[in-house]
């Protein structure tokens, strides 16, 4: 079927779908049936993936949940990730309670869903009575925590890689903010930064065009290492080695 559609489209690329494609597939009704079948297959596949993940977590990975949450002290200053922190607090309160397949949280508990449980997981987590099942909810919370750690929105007290982002700032950042922003070549006005970033793709295209014959030269975008701050080191430099401070500069003309 796909081959016939591709051949028909290639044979008459300027034709309409109704005139070119419909005849080779048997009409509009056939296409609608194929689309419905594909959607159903995708839904079944996603449901199977959720079932496998849930089974693997409950049978093996879940045994690490209790020691993991007891060992880590998590912090967050971003209110947008408060639901994730509240969900972690909920899991910690239930660590000592035995669990079995189908175990639910107490109906009096307020289990955060928005920002924690993806829409495609809601049916697996919340039953038709609005009760939240513990095992799939725990899995969703851990995935949300992983994503928040990667974004540095939640951090681990005393950690190295997952430490507070404040440790990545120079020790004298607040006192010498102007100097550090100038060294990075970045504006201090938050409203200007999106405009600077929005212009980078056009600058890159123009920079590439200058290398092609017959095209007028334009500015080049250069990424280079900026000098260290006046303190001579970045805060937390001893943890994992020195950080590289980069700056972006635009070089006008054909240099």
Main attributes of the structure:
single chain; two-stranded antiparallel sheet; mainly alpha; 4 strands; 10 helices; two-stranded antiparallel ribbon; 255 residues; flat; 3 domains
- In whole angstroms, the N-to-C terminal distance is 56 Å
Unreliable runs: 231-245
What structural class do you assign from the helix and strand content?
mainly alpha
Q: Helix content range of the residues, please?
A: 40-55%
Number of domain units: 3
List the helices and strands in order. HHHHHEHHHEHHEE
Q: What can you see in these coordinates?
A:
The protein has 255 residues and is mainly alpha-helical. The chain has three domains: 2-59, no CATH class; 62-165, no CATH class; 169-251, no CATH class. Helices cover 45% and strands 7% of the residues. It is built from ten helices and four strands, in the order H-H-H-H-H-E-H-H-H-E-H-H-E-E. It has helices at residues 2-11, 17-20, 22-25, 28-59, 65-71, 82-93, 122-125, 134-150, 177-184, 192-209, and strands spanning 74-76, 154-156, 220-225, 246-251. The strands form two sheets. It has a two-stranded antiparallel sheet with strand order 1-2. Helix 6 (82-93) packs across helix 8 (134-150).
SSE blueprint and pairings:
Layout: H1 2-11, H2 17-20, H3 22-25, H4 28-59, H5 65-71, E1 74-76, H6 82-93, H7 122-125, H8 134-150, E2 154-156, H9 177-184, H10 192-209, E3 220-225, E4 246-251
Antiparallel strand pairs: 1-2, 3-4
Helix pairs in contact: 6-8
In short:
With 255 residues, this protein is mainly alpha-helical.
């Amino acid at each position: 079927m796909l081959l016939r559609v591709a051949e028909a489209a290639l044979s008459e690329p300027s034709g309409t779908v109704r005139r070119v494609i419909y005849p080779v597939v048997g009409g509009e009704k056939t296409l609608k049936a194929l689309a419905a079948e594909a959607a159903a297959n995708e839904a079944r596949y996603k449901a199977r993936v959720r079932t496998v993940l849930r089974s693997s977590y409950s049978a093996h990975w879940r045994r690490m949940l209790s020691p993991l949450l007891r060992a880590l002290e998590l912090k967050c200053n971003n209110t947008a990730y408060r639901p994730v922190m509240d969900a972690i607090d909920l899991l910690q309160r239930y660590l000592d309670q035995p669990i079995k397949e189908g175990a639910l949280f107490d109906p009096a508990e307020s289990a955060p869903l928005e920002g924690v449980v993806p829409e495609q997981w809601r049916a697996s987590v919340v039953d038709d009575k609005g009760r939240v099942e513990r095992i799939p909810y725990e899995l969703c919370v851990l995935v949300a925590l992983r994503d928040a750690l990667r974004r540095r929105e939640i951090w681990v007290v005393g950690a190295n890689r997952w430490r507070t982002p404040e440790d990545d700032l120079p020790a004298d950042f607040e006192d010498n903010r102007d100097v550090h922003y100038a060294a990075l070549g970045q504006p201090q006005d938050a409203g200007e930064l999106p405009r600077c970033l929005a212009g980078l793709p056009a600058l890159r295209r123009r920079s590439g065009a200058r290398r092609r014959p017959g095209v007028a030269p334009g500015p080049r975008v250069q990424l280079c290492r900026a000098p260290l701050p006046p303190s001579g080191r970045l805060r937390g430099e001893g943890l994992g080695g020195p950080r590289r401070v980069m700056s972006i500069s635009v070089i006008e003309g054909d240099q």
